[in-house]
Design goal:
The protein is mainly alpha-helical and 109 residues long. Helices cover 88% and strands 0% of the residues. Helix 1 packs parallel to helix 3 and helix 2 packs antiparallel against helix 3.
């Protein structure tokens, strides 16, 4: 029963991640190839904070991915799926941060 819940959660998180990725791609296409964008000081601080937070989540996602790879060889299928769930959640947070940054840049231009 526990394995089924973890696998279903992984599938749901995968769908959410895919949708966020599509949303991020559309935001980046809207921004297009632009020159330097004039941002207010408040927007620059907000983007700096987003990037700082995103670095932490990227590091966490990399650690979780390495643990998942280790679980391939030494753990059970449930443990593998659990760490892939955690990795996917961290990836979703990174994508949401990227989307917020793209929105801030779009407002600044």
């Amino acid at each position: 029963m526990g394995t089924a819940i973890v696998v279903v959660a992984l599938l749901v998180l995968g769908v959410i991640s895919f949708r966020l990725n599509r949303q991020l791609i559309s935001w980046r296409q809207q921004l297009g190839q632009r020159g330097p964008v004039e941002l207010t000081a408040g927007q620059q601080v907000a983007i700096s904070q987003l990037r700082h937070d995103r670095r932490k989540w990227v590091l966490l996602s990399q650690v979780l991915f390495v643990i998942a790879v280790v679980m391939i060889f030494s753990g059970s299928f449930t443990e593998l799926c659990f760490f892939l769930d955690l990795y996917t959640v961290a990836s979703i947070v990174v994508r949401q941060s990227n989307i917020q940054e793209a929105k801030l840049i779009a407002r600044g231009s």
